[in-house]
Structure formats: structure tokens, C-alpha cells
Amino acid sequence: MLENSVNNTEIHHFFEMPPEAFHGKIPFIVTDLIAELKNRNWADVEGIFRLNGSDTKTKELCDDLDKDRVTNWAKYDDVHTIATALKRYFRQMSEHEPLVTLDVYDCVIGLMGINDEEREVDVFKNVLAMLPKIRMITLGYLCQFLNETAKSSSKNKMTPDNLAICFAPNIITSPNVPPLDAMQQAQLANKALALLISRFNDIFTDFSVDESLFCNEEDFSLFNAPPINVVHIQHQIFRCNFRHGHIIPFVPLCRLVKTKRFERPTRDPPDPANIEGDETLRQQQVLTTLLNSKMIKPGNSVSPKTEKEVSSFSLD
Known about the structure:
Pfam families: RhoGAP (PF00620). The chain is mainly α and about 325 residues long.
């Protein structure tokens, strides 16, 4: 069990997480258990999946997988314990929603009444497309593994029909089946899974799984992250909207003043054709300025020196 150290509340149990919660990856419980079965040459074991392992050891293994990945498989020395844990995972999933979702269940049961295997294979392709993508991939990964198991039925005595009896009640099931129809629909569910196993290559055409669909360490860091508090997010959105709605808009002062902008006065340059007249006018303006400032008294003559000084003045 993973716990939040802040409020001491449960974050998750991997056995209770639906396939959609693994970030688009096949649940690691499925891939890890199948990988360990392959390491132990499961296909040569008689009665694999039909015979159960130790209940105590199976529960211990399921508890370990419920918390995290198993790093020490040596303590689970019985291959039947590992096989039983795989079946138990799908049984646990069916208590919430089976791998084949309830809205697809009726279609699966209905198509098994066609009684024409080739038509059933063709229709099954369309029915599986109705499943959420990761559920379809997980189902295909399991059926591919069970197909490999059935190929060694001469050793393990597990034909597609026998394997379907072990897995169908946990994969293709519904809690809404009327009691009077329960037996018949269970038989149809077994028939459907047996068809998926025996005709795997025809139904799951071009099916392949690479490591990008397996959970890695980065995924586990996301699994172990504290859950997102939706109430906190809603509060932050409210605060943001509140601040935005109460902002006093800033408008530059120049946009509010309607008076005409000040423009610096300009004057035309002197006319080259009348440069002497302009010079005379300039001297008269200078003399007028000097008279007004009483630097020259009226009636006094202007000495050549003064005249020279006056002519040196310039007006801007």
C-alpha cells in the first residue's frame, strides 16, 4: 500500500487500478507475470492455469504486486503460484469492470450465436475495435500468450477450450446476466475466448507489442506521485478569474487628452535669390532690438565698430 505522507491517505492499489490508469501501457502485473512464466518454461508444465498454486504464496505474491514490482522472484518457486496470480488479477479487475467492458459483452455473446466460425472471426474484429485501445492491446497480449500455451497442449494438456474455461469467467462476464441465462452465457463466453485463442492470428491481424507499451521506471515515478487535488485546482482557477475580473485597466494619459499635440514651429529657409534683402531686414531687426533695450539711444549715430558688431549678430 502506498500512502501519502501528508494526510496519511491511500494513493492506490495496483490490483485495483483499471488498465486505463497505467498511462497507455499494458499493466505491469500482466507483463511481469507472463515474463516470469516464460522464464520458467511454463508451456511444458502439465495443467498450467488449471492447477492452482499455494493460496498463501499466491496471496503474498499478489500483495507484493499490489505495492510495487517484484524484484525477488526466487521466493516464489512454484510456477503454478505465478499462473494463479495472473488469473487472480483478472478476477480482481472483473469486480470493477472486466477486461472486456460491459458495453461490448452483449456484442460478444451475440456474435457467438452465428454458428459460423469464419463469420464469427470477421465480426470479432469489429467488436474488438469497440474496446478502449489499451484494453484491446492487453487482451491481445494475453491471447497471444495463451495461443503459445495451447501450441504445447500435447505436453501441458491445455487446449484453447481448457484455457478459456480458466480465464473467460474473469474476462468475458457481466453482473447483469439473469440467473436463468447464466449457464448458457457462460458457455458462450468460453466459446468466444477459445476462438480468440485458437484464431489469434486471424482476429488480431498484424498484432505486435514493443517495449514502448511496457511500464518503465518513469511510469512508476508518476504512479507514486501524490494524487491531484481537484478542489485545489478549482480554487486556483477561481482566484485567477477573480483577480482578472478586478484589475483596474491601465490607459496611457495621452489616450485620454484630446487636445492637439504640441508641434514645434518651423520657418522657411532664406531665399537665395533675395539674400541681400534678408540681410538688410536682419540688421534692422537687430537695431530695433538694441533700441528697445536702450543699448543705442535714438538720434545717435552708429559707429563703424558698433555697426560691425550689429552686423555680426544673428537671430535664431
